[in-house]
Amino acid sequence: MASPHRALFSIVTFAAGSVLLAWSPAPQEAPEGYAIANEKVIDRCSRCHVVDDDGRMSRISYLRKTPEGWQTSIRRMMALHGARLNQADATEIVRYLANEQGLAPEELRPGMFEVERRSLDHDYEGDSGVEYTCIQCHSMGRVITQRRTGEEWSLLLATHRGLYPLVDRQAFRNGGRGGPDSGPHPMDEAIDHLSEVFPLETPEWSAWSATKRSPRLAGTWTLAGHEPGKGPIFGTVTIIADPGDPDAFTTSTAYVYAESGQRVQRTGRSAIYTGFQWRGRSNPGAEDELREVMLVERGQSEISGRWFRGDYDEVGPDVTLRRVSGGAVVSGVYPMALEKGVATDVQVFGLGLTSSSELDFGAGITVESTNAGTDGSLRVRVSVMANANLGARDVYSNGSIAERAVVVHDGVDRIGITPETGLARAGGVVHPKGYQAFDAIGYDNGPDGEPNTDDDLNLGRVAVSWHLEEYAATFGDDDIDFVGHIGTDGVFVPAVDGPNPERSGLRNNIGDVWVVATLGDGGALSARAHLVVAPPLYMRWEPWREIESGRPPIGDER
Ligand code: HEC
Ligand code: HEC
After folding, report:
1. CA distance 20 to 152
2. Ligand closest in space to the Cα of 152
3. Residue of 95, 115, 122, 369 with fewest CB within 10 Å of its CB?
């Protein structure tokens, strides 16, 4: 236990820690909790976490978390409580705990956005009161990616109160809630709700524990994806097993951005946690390094998720990998939108396609000619009959199907922007900029001819021109002159952080504006999205970054 004189933090820790560790569950009949079978965990952690007769360790045995969640705990043990671990220990311990006390795929799915570092407007449907209490400082994603006993939920919130004393005012008692006459205390409500909805033991976890194993992913996979601001990508990933470690792989990846023709090559390494959670890194150390967070589907023939820049989480593609089990495979078509009554040249992407590949686009579309491109794709001329049915179609080749690879339409009726609400952050001086990419999507009103109905057809990205307009929130609002600019590619680049002497009241370059896309002569079709340009994220509590980066974990330098 850290001694109270070491640092200010230690005083809090000392108080919170001695209480919290002493509160470990009293033995009951057939109590919950997982026995710890890893020597490193026992050796490095039992100084403070008591081992009971059944091999369970106080606190540790009563939780399940993602690898990131376990990394967070371990980092806190090092930073606040003086646990000493080197990189190899930390890696082994995170891996053991994430494998043995992880989440089942069904449990993780609703919280995937948290580990994929997606910036989105999440709506927790479980309980809006608890959501309000818990999203004051971090996203609900951090909460729904953990499972605990009721006692552990209550200890976690006690830790919050011990470590962040302001939490009481900021959230737990906000607006006088939880006073003597105003119903249950928000914290008790949260504990009750979370204990019921996210308990330690679940049927999902026992079922996954029974079948969980190191997945055999070696082989060739097609890659199809979409990067905001850049459009569709297609390529292949070769996954090679690590002979010394059934959960580790190396990868070599090649893909092309269909719109620009830009080609990319990557090599990477990855590890699998809990039998299905892919965590990797490609082109490590290079300027274009990407993190990879993906979910391996149970059939071990599909892997999907997100690749993103570590320093700019908002930049990177959504990807799906599909296993190639011999023969030719189609993975997608660009452009995907085919107009009725017109002949169009498209590129068919996939693997092993040749000019003699048999291609089937469904009734009403004929393949006029097929030529092999230099990049493995096929250049295909298709003509769509005037009476072809409107709608998305699967494309078939040599025993493989790419679902909804093309869509037949009769003209762009309207456009829309994704996301409808964006968030960028001023930066570039002290803090990194937070970019926001927008895509303009074309829509056909569909067979019913009515806009905004279920049969509307998404035609993919359309080429538009972009500009900003003032979102008049105050009299004489001038945000548009200061917040930044939008590029021809729909990527908003914020202005620098810090007070701006050019701006009245020395204000920062923050504010909100409309992002407007226009299509066609004289801007016949247009759409707009709301963009908020916020101050930088001054504090990012993401301690796993240090463990991942290979820098000595805090606590080891002493
Ligand atoms: C020097 C003492 C010390 C050591 C060594 C230590 N811990 Fe802790 N641990 C604590 C204290 C104090 C708490 C309660 C306060 C807190 O959660 O930060 C705690 C709480 C925890 C929790 C519960 C946190 C939560 O999610 O609510 C976990 C998990 C944990 N420790 C894991 C570990 C692991 C794994 C190790 C070994 C690598 C370890 N600890 C080593 C002192 C220690
Ligand atoms: C005052 C700000 C604040 C509020 C409000 C808050 N949290 Fe936290 N929470 C934090 C901080 C800061 C951390 C990071 C602690 C760390 O990593 O050491 C954290 C971490 C967590 C973690 C991960 C802890 C771990 O060790 O794995 C969970 C789970 C969590 N909070 C749940 C909740 C829940 C549930 C609520 C609502 C009842 C809540 N938080 C409200 C600030 C807050």
Report:
1. 10
2. 1
3. 369
pLDDT at 263 over 70: yes
Answer left, alpha or beta for residue 396, where phi above 0 means left and psi between -120 and 50 means alpha. beta
Calculate how far, in angstroms, residue 148's C-alpha sits from the geometric centre of ligand 1: 15
Atom of ligand 2 nearest to the CA of 187: 38
Distance between CA 473 and CA 471 in Å, rounded? 6
Using a 6 Å cutoff on CB, does residue 159 contact ligand 1?
yes
Q: CB of 48 closer than 6 A to ligand 1?
A: yes
How many residues in the chain? 558
Residue found under tokens 């998404």: 458
Kindly give, in sequence order, each residue whose CB lies less than 8 Å from that of residue 359, ignoring residues fewer than 6 positions away. Answer: 330, 348, 367, 370, 378, 380, 395, 396, 397
**Which ligand is nearest to the Cα of residue 190, counting in written order?**
2
555 backbone φψ class: left, alpha, beta (φ>0; ψ -120 to 50): left
Residue 496 CB-density burial (10 A; 0-12 exposed, 13-18 middle, 19+ buried): middle
pLDDT tier, 207 (very low <50, low <70, confident <90, very high otherwise): very high
Among the listed residues 417, 411, 460, 416, the one whose alpha carbon sits nearest the alpha carbon of residue 438: 417
Q: Whose CA is nearest to atom 17 of ligand 1?
A: 159
Does 555 contact ligand 1 (Cβ within 6 A)? no
Q: What is the pLDDT of residues 293-334, one digit of tens each?
A: 999 999 999 999 999 987 778 889 999 999 998 778 999 999
pLDDT digits (tens, 9 = 90+) for 411-470: 999 999 999 999 999 999 988 899 999 999 999 999 999 999 999 999 999 999 999 999
For residue 543, is pLDDT > 90?
A: no
Phi, psi (deg, nearest 5) at residue 449? 70, 0
Cα(59) to ligand 1 centroid in Å equals 7
Q: Which amino acid is at 357?
A: S
CA–CA dist 444, 431 (Å, integer): 42
Whole-number Å distance, alpha carbon 138 to ligand 2 midpoint, is: 7
Give the number of the atom of ligand 2 that is nearest the alpha carbon of residue 194. 35
Top pLDDT among 261 and 556 is at 261
pLDDT over 90 for what percent of the chain?
69
Nearest CA to ligand 2 atom 26: 73
The confidence score (pLDDT) of residue 93 equals 95
